Amino acid sequence: MAYSNWGAFVYCNGERRTDKEDTSVFEHKDARCFHAVLGDEEIRLCGYKCYPELWQLKDGVLKQIDIDQFEVDGTENYEGTIDGYGFIARQYDDNMLALALKQPDGTKWTGDCGYKYGAGHMD
């Protein structure tokens, strides 16, 4: 389901996860909503419009992780590992974002979000 002119498709181990599209990053009173939320453990990679964000919920404390420290050569693309979670975020076609997250247990998440893209726009 898309809201506004932006949307997403999210997959976990190749299976579509509509519950991770246009939803809150965590069930927490201070959590924000995103078009794409990858992950179901303490670290989550999110896409809002065509911008990535990293979030962590640990011991009841919600915090945003500075994704800029993982920027690849000034490209506004991001790649790295944090607490055993590997992730990639790549912007493409001016208003699209490709995301990937691998959890420490091997679970693989992928997603794309962007302008006039995703559920509600394409299905």
Blueprint of the fold:
Elements: E1 6-12, E2 15-16, E3 21-24, E4 33-38, E5 43-48, E6 51-58, E7 61-65, E8 78-82, E9 85-92, E10 96-102, E11 108-115
Antiparallel strand pairs: 1-2, 1-11, 3-4, 4-5, 5-6, 6-7, 8-9, 9-10, 10-11
For the largest sheet, list the strands in their spatial order: 2-1-11-10-9-8
Residue share in β-strands: over 45%
Q: How many domains, as an integer?
A: 1
Q: What structural class should be given to the helix and strand makeup? A: mainly beta
Shape: globular
Overview of the structural elements:
The chain is mainly β and 123 residues long. It has one domain (6-115). The chain is 0% helix and 54% strand. The protein has no helices and eleven strands. It has strands at 6-12, 15-16, 21-24, 33-38, 43-48, 51-58, 61-65, 78-82, 85-92, 96-102, 108-115. The strands form two sheets. The chain has a six-stranded antiparallel sheet with strand order 2-1-11-10-9-8, with no helix packed on it. Strands 3-4-5-6-7 form a five-stranded antiparallel sheet, with no helix packed on it. Strand 8 (78-82) and strand 9 form a beta hairpin. The mean pLDDT is 92.
Summarize the structure.
The protein is mostly beta strands.
Structure characteristics:
mainly beta, five-stranded antiparallel β-sheet, globular
